[in-house]
Amino acid sequence: MRRLLIIIVAIAVAPLLVLAGLVLLHGFPTKYMDLNDDQFVSPAEVIRSLDLGHRTARQGDTTCVEIFQLKDGQAIKHICW
Ligand SMILES: [Ca+2]
């Protein structure tokens, strides 16, 4: 019975560990994952970040970070200071 419980827990936790590994390997900063600016990074935003990249962009005298989709390079958000 104990062995079965361990197997069930391992099956339940394995996808979360794989997802966490993918997110860590991808290296997209968590500070840019909050796409809707609600001050909370949802699990959906973490998953979506796997298809996102970031690059520095200038808008006039302002330095911004452009968040773009890896699949086509299209910008989806600008974060400026
Ligand atoms: Ca959010």
Structure description:
With 81 residues, the chain is an alpha+beta fold. It has one domain (2-80). It is built from two helices and three strands; from the N terminus they run ααβββ. Strands 1-2-3 form a three-stranded antiparallel β-sheet, with no helix packed on it. Strand 2 (62-69) and strand 3 form a beta hairpin. The longest helix has 25 residues, at 2-26. The N and C termini lie far apart (57 Å). Calcium ion (CA) binds next to loops.
Largest sheet: 3 strands, antiparallel
Order of helical and strand elements: HHEEE
- Which word captures the global form? elongated
Small molecules in complex: calcium ion
- End-to-end separation: 57 Å
